[in-house]
Amino acid sequence: MAKRRFQLTDQQDRELLVAYSNCVDGPTRTRYQAVRMYGRGYAMSEILALTGSSRTGVLEWCHFYQTEGLASLTDQRRGGNAAKLTAAQQADLRARLHQYTPAMLFGAQAAGDFWTVPDLKRALLKW
Fold first, then answer.
1. Mapped to the 3 state alphabet, what secondary structure does the chain carry?
2. What does the alpha-carbon distance between residue 38 and residue 31 come to, in Å, rounded to a whole number?
3. What percent of the chain has pLDDT over 90?
4. What average pLDDT score do residues 84-110 get?
5. How many CB atoms lie within 10 A of CB 110?
């Protein structure tokens, strides 16, 4: 078994401990904890069990910490959804969907009085 090359200095250990203690973001705290445990020589199986992370994730976080420092461990995810319509367009669409039924727009070609995905698609293309 290969000897672990990643080891923390006392200063790095304190830096990670302080960052962990002051952090309120869960995913970032997990990264601080995992890197600190790995750098202090904890068994990988123990780190994975305590943090719920993957082995590759822990190793990547250690690499990021070594090369880019503490800031590289913060959670970079943006969240939200990939909405294709702006808020104004969504409001306009909502108003139109309440104002019209598919039968009013497409007559007998509509699926019925309730909006379906194909009818909605046709309405969007029409509007």
1. CCCCCCCCCHHHHHHHHHHHHHCCCHHHHHHHHHHHHHHCCCCHHHHHHHHCCCHHHHHHHHHHHHHHCHHHHCCCCCCCCCCCCCHHHHHHHHHHHHHCCHHHHHHHHCCCCCCCHHHHHHHHHHC
2. 11
3. 54
4. 87
5. 19
Q: Please check whether residue 110 is in contact with residue 119, taking contact to mean a CB–CB distance below 8 angstroms.
A: yes
Residues 50-82 pLDDT 10s? 999 999 999 999 999 999 999 999 987 777 777
The tokens of 118 are what? 């194909």
Amino acid symbol at 42: Y
pTM of the complete model beyond 0.85: no
